[in-house]
């Protein structure tokens, strides 16, 4: 559950989104095209994927909700606040090049920082472009968490589907930071929390527990499988953090019989039993 492990997971998880090396190529985009790509959550998911396939970073980053740039800049600022960075922090700092100091990060926009981070992440993953060049986007369905927040369940390269989370603002839909990025941000928050207590997160790795499971909905994945979208709250000592992800439920499992229940208590109990060692 350490920061370096989360960074490795982030690099691997980005394969779910990317179809080729992420290069900074600027192409003109009409207002009409932008309006189409943000007309619905599914449109955002498709536009995001296609932008990456044609290596158009500007369009891809432009699909993010403005609040996500603020969140990502706060993350970058925290990374450069360490006077004596450890190995994990040093590795993360490399991914922000050319923004290699607290001063440069402060003067950069969140959009620029996110673009640099994604570009550098792909640069340190050799061969990813060749592996993912033939990637195709499969949309399994949508799950509405709130009227203005919808998760599009997609599959690209890896067998396990992942959500493209979208938020509506001023009549336009935007994508949110993906689950791997949020896990990396959460890992830094954990590190800060336990650094203040003089405790290593690695020392507490065996004490990780599952606290709450919030079932947001499910989509069919063939005739005999459903992908259940859950926000699971984990705890390490006195620190809680959420994980958003898709989990398969198959016909014949106890959880399958409770997918359509209005009261999700039995479904949650079945999921806990399934995940228990």
Explain the overall architecture.
The protein has 277 residues and is α+β, with helices and mostly antiparallel strands. It has helices spanning 3-13, 31-37, 41-53, 57-62, 66-79, 87-94, 102-107, 110-123, 128-132, 179-196, 265-275, and strands at 138-146, 149-155, 162-169, 172-175, 209-220, 225-236, 239-250. The chain has a 4-stranded antiparallel sheet with strand order 1-2-3-4, with helices on one face. Strands 5-6-7 form a 3-stranded antiparallel sheet. The longest helix has 18 residues, at 179-196.
Tell me the layout of helices and strands.
Layout: H1 3-13, H2 31-37, H3 41-53, H4 57-62, H5 66-79, H6 87-94, H7 102-107, H8 110-123, H9 128-132, E1 138-146, E2 149-155, E3 162-169, E4 172-175, H10 179-196, E5 209-220, E6 225-236, E7 239-250, H11 265-275
Antiparallel strand pairs: 1-2, 2-3, 3-4, 5-6, 6-7
Helix pairs in contact: 1-10, 5-8
User: What percent of the residues sit in helical stretches (DSSP H or I)?
Assistant: 40-55%
Main pleated sheet: 4 strands, antiparallel
Give the terminus-to-terminus CA distance: 18 Å
Mean pLDDT, as a whole number?
Answer: 86
Total count of strands: 7
What's the tally of helices?
A: 11
Based on helices, strands and strand pairing, what is the structural class? alpha+beta
Radius of gyration: 19 Å
Widest beta sheet: strand line-up: 1-2-3-4
């Amino acid at each position: 559950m350490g920061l370096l492990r989360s960074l490795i997971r982030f690099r691997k998880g980005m394969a779910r989104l990317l179809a080729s090396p992420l290069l900074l190529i600027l192409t003109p985009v009409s207002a009409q095209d932008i309006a189409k790509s943000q007309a619905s959550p599914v449109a955002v998911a498709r536009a995001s994927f296609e932008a990456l396939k044609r290596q158009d970073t500007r369009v891809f980053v432009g699909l993010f909700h403005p609040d996500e740039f603020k969140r990502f800049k706060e993350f970058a600022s925290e990374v450069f606040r360490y006077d004596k960075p450890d190995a994990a922090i040093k590795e993360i700092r490399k991914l922000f090049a050319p923004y290699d100091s607290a001063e440069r990060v402060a003067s950069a926009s969140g959009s620029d920082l996110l673009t640099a981070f994604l570009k550098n992440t792909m640069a340190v993953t050799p061969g990813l472009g060749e592996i993912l060049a033939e990637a195709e986007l499969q949309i399994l369905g949508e799950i509405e968490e709130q009227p203005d927040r919808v998760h599009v369940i997609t599959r690209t390269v890896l067998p396990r589907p992942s959500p493209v989370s979208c938020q509506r603002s001023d009549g336009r839909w935007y994508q949110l930071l993906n689950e791997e990025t949020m896990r990396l941000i959460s890992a830094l928050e954990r590190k800060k929390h336990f650094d203040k207590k003089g405790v290593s997160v690695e020392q507490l790795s065996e004490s990780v527990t599952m606290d709450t499971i919030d079932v947001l909905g499910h989509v069919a994945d063939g005739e005999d499988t459903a992908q259940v979208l859950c926000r699971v709250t984990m705890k390490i000592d006195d620190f809680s953090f959420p994980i958003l992800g898709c989990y398969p439920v198959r016909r014949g499992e106890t959880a399958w019989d409770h997918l359509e229940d209005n009261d999700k208590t039995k479904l949650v109990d079945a999921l806990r039993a399934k995940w228990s060692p």
